[in-house]
Amino acid sequence: MGHTLIIPVSGPIVVGQKKPTLKFLQEGVGGYVEPVYRRLTPDQVAQFNCNDPELDRVAEVIVKPKDVTWACNEEGKLHGLPVNPRATELMNLGYPIVGTVVLLVGFKL
Q: Where does 1-109 have alpha helices with state H?
């Protein structure tokens, strides 16, 4: 079974289990979707749980290492979207991630 986690810049993380459509992803990120493929481990998630209780929702889904897909707004930086600190820390790409991100666990784009 797969999960979707909508990780906004602030506020609660929304967890779902419905297979995402392109429309769902575009609405979630607020524009064109740019997929980013990464491996996410429970240790990576646990490292941030003390900073943000909302990340407990991610920890509930990532109970073993998983290949995940992050759906980001392809033009987020061009549109001046705010930095998403949770996604930036979890993705650990070396640059800030902006706007709402949809994390796909067990689903492929």
A: 22-29, 42-49, 56-61, 85-91
Q: Are 71 and 102 in contact (CB under 8 A)?
A: yes
Residue 63: both structure tokens together: 């109970």
Residues 6+ away with beta carbon under 8 Å from 93: 36
How far apart are the C-alpha atoms of 68 and 4, rounded to whole Å? 10
pTM of the full predicted structure? 0.83
* Strand-by-strand arrangement of the 14-16 sheet: 14-16, 3-7, 101-105, 66-73, 33-40
Give CA–CA dist 105/66, Å, rounded. Answer: 7
- As a dihedral over the C-alpha atoms of residue 72, residue 38, residue 62, residue 53, rounded to 10 degrees, the angle is -50
Local structure of residue 55 (DSSP, 8 states)? G
28-67 pLDDT, tens per residue? 999 999 999 888 777 777 665 545 666 666 767 776 767 7
